[in-house]
Design brief:
Structural class: alpha/beta
Largest sheet: 4 strands, parallel
Number of helices: 10
Shape: globular
Strand content: 5-15%
Radius of gyration: 17 Å
């Protein structure tokens, strides 16, 4: 790790500790409610967290699609993705769906810190080489409307927990694409084609892990990975908290 990356990591570790203290103070003043059992005073209780089960195997060895009998899925054969590997912790159902909806649409930003350890558990299964962590970016218009990027709220604590530098500017969304909801797999690929730009200053010759909240077809992450590799990234690995069937979004 370079001196610059070490300095960035040290600043981020300090920022992460401050972030945790901040949310403890907020939760004391405005007690949160568990999205599973509605217990007050806890953002996600241990009992409910333990009901979130990991994605069943076997999976596609490239995109992580379940139920593939450990074979490369048809879509990865037909349209090889830009990323080296994509893995998701669990299915986009029940408590996971409700938690991510709160994080994404109801400003429950503190859930990012609570859910990030699940991504760490997933990462520890593979121990991919990592030089930097980044997140799937929002467009400027959508970021301004929402006020934050839910993927970044997962990626920052994830990076702090695995002691890797996080760079929000490693990749940017340069096209304000329409929502992927209700689009077919092919329409999703076309919708995000050329939508991202990666900065070689951050990613050249680096092994990158990119984080998102949910993956359906993997088309958005694949397009991000293509941009990262065009900017010089050696490998691009991807983690999402949940995986959704196409019909569920």
């Amino acid at each position: 790790m370079t001196d610059y990356s070490t300095a960035v990591l040290q600043r981020q570790q300090f920022s992460y500790r401050f972030h945790k203290m901040f949310w403890k103070a907020v939760d004391w003043v405005f007690p949160p409610e568990c999205p599973g059992c509605q217990k007050t005073g806890v953002r996600l209780c241990d009992e409910c967290r333990n009901t979130i089960v990991s994605l069943p195997e076997p999976i596609c060895p490239i995109c992580g699609e379940p139920g593939m009998d450990a074979r490369i899925c048809h879509d990865c054969q037909l349209n090889p993705p830009g990323f080296n590997r994509l893995r998701s912790f669990t299915l986009f159902t029940g408590l996971t769906r409700e938690s991510l909806h709160r994080l994404k649409y109801r400003n429950d930003i503190g859930l990012g810190e609570v859910l990030a350890p699940l991504l760490v558990n997933l990462y520890r299964q593979y121990e991919w080489p990592v030089d930097i962590v980044t997140a799937v970016p929002l467009s400027k218009k959508r970021f301004k409307s929402r006020g934050y990027n839910q993927a970044e709220e997962l990626a920052r604590p994830f990076a702090a927990l695995i002691h890797a530098p996080y760079y929000s500017k490693a990749i940017q969304r340069v096209v304000d694409t329409k929502s992927q909801i209700d689009l077919s797999a092919e329409e999703r690929r076309e919708n995000v084609s050329g939508a991202f730009y990666a900065n070689s200053m951050y990613v050249n010759l680096k092994s990158v892990i990119i984080i998102d909240d949910v993956s359906t077809t993997g088309s958005t992450i694949s397009e991000c990975a293509i941009a990262l590799k065009e900017a010089g990234a050696r490998q691009v690995y991807a983690l999402t908290l949940a995986r959704a069937p196409l019909s569920s979004q």
